[in-house]
Amino acid sequence: MLEGAAAALGTAPADRVIVALDCSEDEAYALADRLAGTATFLKVGMTLYYSAGPLVVRRLREQGFKVFVDLKLHDIPHQVEGAARSLAQVGAELMTVHASGGAEMMRAALAGASAGDAGRRAGVDRPAVIGVTVLTSMSDQDLASVGVSRTAAEQVRSLAGLVGGAGLDGVVCSPREASLMRRALGPGALVVTPGVRPAGSASDDQQRVATPAKAIGDGASHLVVGRPITRSADPLSAFNAIVEEVASAL
Ligand code: C5P
Q: Which amino acids bring their CB within 6 angstroms of ligand 1?
């Protein structure tokens, strides 16, 4: 059962499947039209945001969607505070920061997201802010090459502690880390997992995948699913099948 920040973003099975729109602006709007009234939560990442800009967030919100703006902020605290404020003002309900930017930077993100009536003006309370621990594309060797002598698993655990201490709302992590993160951060945390693939579907470039039921069973609050839905001949049916699997796991 979800609590706190995790529950505030919706607890119905459909609320827990976030569709990643990693495509052109035209394709994103076409997909949003197909999914409107069924899906509730869409993710705008760097590919779409850096071409379409904040307008894409406003437009998707006007269609009734919650929008996760996944820009993985990482800069000096002052800059990250401003970026988080800007994203709150356009109506993001969920945003990401790199935990490796440090506790002060994460607290600045929270302050920016909460600043004044930024979020409320766009119709949401304070947007949720979650931390990226270690990118799933980083191996132990990659970490060593940037001066981190811990293993990726140890670094994930350590940064999760920093995320919790800074007061963030949760983490984005691989489904393989979901149960660890749930135990570390408690029942109110957002544990958002990409790398989700229904049984029998292509894993694309994702190395460590899990089925929707397994990810939810392991404690994920929300799943991020892109290509299994967006590249399907029938995105609506693909979305509904995943939601049914989530419902059966709850
Ligand atoms: O198409 P697919 O389902 O693989 O999309 C997964 C989404 O989750 C993409 O938007 C990707 O950027 C994001 N993501 C990820 N792995 C991470 C963090 C984010 O795949 N570690």
A: 20, 22, 43, 45, 135-136, 172, 194-195, 204, 206, 224-227
Using left for φ > 0, alpha for ψ between -120 and 50, and beta otherwise, residue 61 falls in alpha
**What's the 9 CA to ligand 1 centre distance in angstroms?**
19
Is-contact 72 96, C-beta < 8 A?
A: yes
Beta-bridge partner residues of 193: 223
User: What does the mean pLDDT of the chain come to?
Assistant: 93
| 118 vs 141: CA distance, rounded Å | 41
Rounded mean pLDDT of 2-23? 91
Known catalytic membership, residue 72? yes
- pTM beyond cutoff 0.90: yes
Here the tokens at position 40 are 């509730």
